[in-house]
């Protein structure tokens, strides 16, 4: 990176409760990267899609708990469920891009990536009727090997990215990246907002959702978010997927044991834990928290 300029902390009034960022990566169960060796892209159109029903459950949960969120949505999904996208926008949530077809940024060259992020942005804006300024790379696939992607996002009209997870993981991660929002190429460029980690004993703990949220006891996840709010005085950034609230989803055959465990662990507990998280903390959209949009 040319620079790692920390972003200014979100402004708050004295005594105001910290608002954390709630985000949802809108994709279906058969599109996750871990299933790529087992489920061909050619088969996607023939598979049972469950994303629309799952999003309805999520929107109802958010409305009940007064949560506003950012929905990083695949163009592939938006193209097939435009009314779902419009319901997300009508409910007051932010629409953001997850690319078109869940291709990892690290698997694309500059021209392919540029086409992906631009076409997805145009498609989402046409369907949702609002400007799309945020992007999250599938599987947090921006790292040291493809930092040019951040410049491409700026040139394509995005204002922020949430594509770097500052932990070590076998599928993603950039452990030496800053823990909180920063400008990789200086304050005139794109704002990168990493998934939240909590520090304990000099080690970074994954505190921002995903499979860790389903695996770990809820009390530990709550403690980590609270620690970030109180000790670091920073908003936490949480993410999850619609398929995580769907324990009845189809189960493809032939999965390796690790992928099967990671994908299906505690799906039946996720919705309840998400509701508890919604009650225990204040949540809002990414653009409002980090870009001070009204």
From TrEMBL:
UniProt xrefs under InterPro entries: DUF3473, Glyco_hydro/deAcase_b/a-brl, NODB_dom, PuuE_HpPgdA-like, XrtA_polysacc_deacetyl
Residues annotated as domain NodB homology: 41-294
CDD domains assigned to the protein according to its UniProt record, in alphabetical order: CE4_PuuE_HpPgdA_like_2
Full protein name: XrtA system polysaccharide deacetylase
Superkingdom of the organism of origin: Bacteria
Pfam families on file: DUF3473, Polysacc_deac_1
